[in-house]
Design goal:
It is a single chain. The chain is mainly beta. Helices cover 14% and strands 44% of the residues. The protein is built from three helices and 22 strands. The strands form four sheets. Strands 11, 14, 15, 16, 17, 18, 19, 20, 21 and 22 form a ten-stranded antiparallel beta sheet that branches. Strands 2-9-8-4-5 form a five-stranded mixed beta sheet, with no helix packed on it. It is globular, with a radius of gyration of 21 Å. The relative contact order is 0.16. The structure holds zinc ion. Zinc ion (ZN) binds next to loops.
Length: 285
């Protein structure tokens, strides 16, 4: 084989498609995005990172593009990850490899005092209840539909001061107990809470830790959650529009005072909700 032929082969395989990686590094607890140009005779299949695989979806506002999200768990350690884009060219499966840097979010720590019974519940009844609630939530978050309910930018669920950011390591009554899994907004009991975008209400019920809770499915594996509400305006199965009133803030569940806890999941992974919304707003809508 002569070198020129080999060179052409390399160029043609590199030029199989164009992809854009706005940020080639991401911190634990945050989400990265990859954008792809649609090409003739080429079908994007999925992205593979170790044992995980991620779907590639149609870009919601640009018919010439596709996109994929790579949500990073809070518990990811700094490393370089091999990311494989799997696609079919002329009915033959091929892979393109890129590398992603996972960085340390350097999240702060905070101490919290709550009612003893809400830290580590010991009664069997409560344990059974929280286990059931956890299983139900994980089943919901595992659902990744190709359908996307969203057509425009995400909104914050309310306008008020953020009292606690996503990712702070939490020490409940002096025992380290996970991390803050969402963003807290200051909210007096009874403050209106809105849907941050279009979607389907997939959960609206009282839970032990999160109190009166709402989860909205926005499609394509993206969920937003609204916790500790005093009352519901919607019920499971309802379709909601961005900005629509879904309930009122409160002080239900495991709390130190009234506030709204707002969180998000992507492909089952809990991520920083504000960073996720900013990322989607900038790249997709
Ligand atoms: Zn919170």
């Amino acid at each position: 084989m002569n070198y020129i032929f080999l060179l052409l082969l390399v160029i043609s395989s590199l030029r199989a498609f164009t992809m854009e990686v706005p940020e080639s590094s991401v911190v634990n607890g945050r989400t990265a995005i990859i954008l792809f140009d649609k090409e003739k005779d080429l079908k994007y299949e999925k992205i593979v990172v170790g044992k995980e695989s991620y779907k590639i979806f149609k870009h919601p506002s640009n018919a010439k593009k596709m996109y994929a999200l790579l949500p990073q768990s809070y518990y990811e350690k700094p490393t370089t990850k091999k990311v494989e884009v799997v696609y079919q060219k002329n009915s033959k499966e091929e892979r393109k490899v890129i590398f992603f840097q996972i960085k340390d979010g350097k999240y702060a720590k905070e101490r919290i005092q709550v009612q003893k019974s809400k830290v580590n519940p010991t009664s069997k009844k409560v344990k059974d209840r929280t286990a059931k609630e956890y299983a139900q939530a994980m089943k919901i978050y595992g659902g990744v539909t190709s359908k996307n309910y969203v057509t425009s930018k995400y909104l914050a669920p309310m306008n008020s001061k953020i009292t606690s950011d996503f990712g702070k390591a939490r020490i409940y009554n002096d025992a380290l107990n996970g991390y803050h899994s969402g963003t807290d907004f200051r909210a007096k009991v009874g403050t209106p809470i809105i849907a941050s975008n279009d979607g389907k209400i997939v959960l609206a019920k009282d839970r032990f830790y999160s109190g009166n809770s709402i989860i909205i499915d926005h499609g394509q594996g993206i969920y937003t959650c609204y916790y500790h509400l005093s009352a519901f305006k919607v019920k499971e199965g309802d379709m909601v529009k961005k900005g629509e009133l879904i309930g009122w803030s409160g002080a239900t569940g495991r709390i130190t005072g009234p506030h709204l806890h707002f969180s998000a999941r992507v492909g089952g992974v809990q991520v920083d909700p504000l960073q996720l919304m900013a990322l989607l707003n900038k790249n997709l809508y």
